[in-house]
């Protein structure tokens, strides 16, 4: 009989291996954001088409997050996690040497498989590696990996791209994947699969009362965010007139502000989860409109990006808190559903934002994202009742 009880001691090196793995995958996912222009030039495509490298990854991640438990139900989770790192390495190397757009997309498809699968399983894996009393700390470390990726990926990608070219940046990403693989091989214990891995359980969550509208709100806020974030570089270059150094600096400001927002989000959540869920996207929408209005004033752009990054730091933590509270009785299925919705939102936001960029110029994806972010606030007010407003 398998032992499903939590361990008596915490495997902190393994927790950090999970966090670093998540950080590596999200960093690779977001690299095209800071490399959009040189990637487009190198592959002889439009910037909008280059942006689809983000949407393709997110699209594949949708299915990976929904089916990973079913597809790997007979495999030790230790080897599944290591397999995701192997996919990250292969993806980065393929993109680095891609002779054309099609090969670049092949590499991004492999990344989507790893990203969706790993991210959907990360929380449940962390809960198996520490005693119940240490779960909040373990999850904060895992989510900290996401924050670090948000801080590092865009500015580091832009900076390194100026030094070694965009292909060199993806070789660095592959090296990061090798480090993750070795770390995981050393620290992760055997973790036999648990449960039946039933895809129907994930879909069944949508049938619960009070779930569909909040999931639509999750979709809207992440789609709006990705429409804005994915196409910031063309905006900075064409509207604000920033060079490579300026783009790197502003993206660093965004990342640091996002990390600070994530770190401080628990304060707002203790006051009111509902207000945080509704107010944060409204702030983001205001910042996006501000960027469209004051894009030629460098100081205003930097200030708005800082506020935008800080505000978005609250969003993933707040919605993860809502999912844990409302769907905590089936955490693994709920995690898969949430990741699927977020990745669908990411691919929609990046995809439609790319078309908007090609058709309407660099302000179009910013304004499209602002509309979706404002819609999120309305959905939260309609969908999230007041009784869950306080977080212990």
Automatic annotation (TrEMBL):
GO terms for molecular function: transmembrane transporter activity. Keywords: Cell membrane, Membrane, Transmembrane, Transmembrane helix. It comes from the Bacteria. It is a multi-pass membrane protein. Pfam families: MFS_1. Gene3D superfamilies: MFS general substrate transporter like domains (1.20.1250.20). It is found in: Cell membrane. GO terms for cellular component: plasma membrane. Residues 13-388 form the Major facilitator superfamily (MFS) profile domain. The chain crosses the membrane at residues 12-33, 53-72, 79-99, 105-126, 138-158, 164-186, 198-222, 242-261, 273-294, 300-323, 335-357, 363-384. Its main location: membrane. This is MFS transporter.
